[in-house]
Input
Amino acid sequence: MATFVETGRKIVAVGKNYRKHVAEMAQIGSSKDEKFISEGPKVPVLFLKPTTSYLPMGQGPILLPKDIGPVHHEVELGIVIGQRCKRVPESKAMEVIAGYTVALDLTARDLQSAAKERGLPWSVPKGYDHFTPVGSFIDKAKVRDPHALELFCSVNGTERQRGHTKEMIFHVPQLIVEISKIFTLEAGDLILTGTPEGVGPIQAGDLVRAGIVGMSESEIHFDVAM
Output
């Protein structure tokens, strides 16, 4: 599955999967996020990203679109699916995983906020080319517990995000159960599991680094251009 970027047919992303991130989004003015916090999540928030949004590390800088407002970094643990599966029981969920990766789910924040308020999909604010920078494939044998990982993201040497995967609202097996009820998952598909708090804007000239603490092979770095 080292070639998941080329072979995978879809990116299934999870929104609002860390409570502190939902709270920080509510603070910037989204009434929908405030309601989400007060009501409590019943099922994961899911959206699709096109595979054309992939930017593997080493294949150039992140090229930001013009005239769309601020673009925010969101570091995420990615799950690479290893086999075709549907309606996976929770007891079997970890068996369909081939491995993991670290990704950035870049977001045109003003466009997303407008979409939230109008009840519209997030395809536009999340789907531009280069909006899913990814690192290398990490075989699942190297990750004893995907809920015992610490993610980080820095911009120009200043750390902005640091969060622990144990704080996910919906853990990895639950995500696979819920997603596979809707979509048939196929080998090479990627699930983005949500981002911890600390998201913020990037701009041309920045250097973004992210990864899993203590796992050098997970680390990614991208220059940003326009």
